[in-house]
Amino acid sequence: MATQIFVNLHVKDLNKSVAFFTQLGYTFNPQFTDENATCMIISDTIYVMLLVEPFFQSFTKKDIVDTSKAQECTIALSMESKEAVDDIVNKAIAAGSVIPKPEQDYGWMYQHSFEDLDGHLWEYVWMDPAGPPQQ
Fold first, then answer.
1. What pLDDT, in 10s, does the model give residues 49-106?
2. 114 has which bridge partners?
3. Could you give the residue ranges of the DSSP H alpha helices within 1-135?
4. d(Cα 6, Cα 112) in Å, to the nearest integer?
5. Pairing of strands 37-41, 46-52
6. pTM above 0.90, yes or no
7. Cβ neighbours around 134 below 10 Å, total
8. What are 25-55's pLDDT values in tens digits?
9. Is the pLDDT of residue 135 over 90?
10. Contact 111, 124 (CB under 8 A)
11. Residue 42: how many CA atoms within 13 Å on its side-chain side?
């Protein structure tokens, strides 16, 4: 059974968020885009819904996380190489993101992360298909 995932994130300024993620190379589905939200395409089965905060709030009675004070989650995506990880992080830096910590290189696994304009943490990782070294 094929499964799709739709991650919903609150954003302060939808147009700025679209511009930011466009600089990273992502595209958006116009069928699911209006002044309240857009659907960012990660892959054929992974999508990120960016929703302006008042619209996001309409789906919950809980407070929206203040990402300057708390981390609600980490969006972790795999990449095909270490260079691809560095490429997207460098694009994010150029687009105005914050780098919360240096990259981590374990030899068989490499990861680097950034915070988007709204403080959501995105982590990109490459793992050697052979897996970790055998002990």
1. 999 999 999 999 999 999 999 998 999 999 999 999 999 999 999 999 999 999 999 9
2. 122
3. 14-23, 53-57, 82-94
4. 23
5. antiparallel
6. yes
7. 5
8. 999 999 999 999 999 999 999 999 999 999 9
9. no
10. yes
11. 19
User: What strand order describes the sheet that includes 46-52?
Assistant: 5-11, 46-52, 37-41, 27-29
Residue 2 has pLDDT above 90, yes or no: no
Letter string b/e over residues 36-56, b meaning 16 or more CB atoms within 10 A of that residue's CB: ebbbbeeeeeebbbbbbeebb
The distance between the two most distant Cα atoms of the chain, rounded to a whole number of Å, is 54
Specify the residue for token string 């709030």. Answer: 57
Among all chains, which residue has been given the structure tokens 């939200």? 37
CA 80 to chain centre: 16
Q: DSSP state, 34?
A: S
- Indicate the length of the chain as a whole number: 135
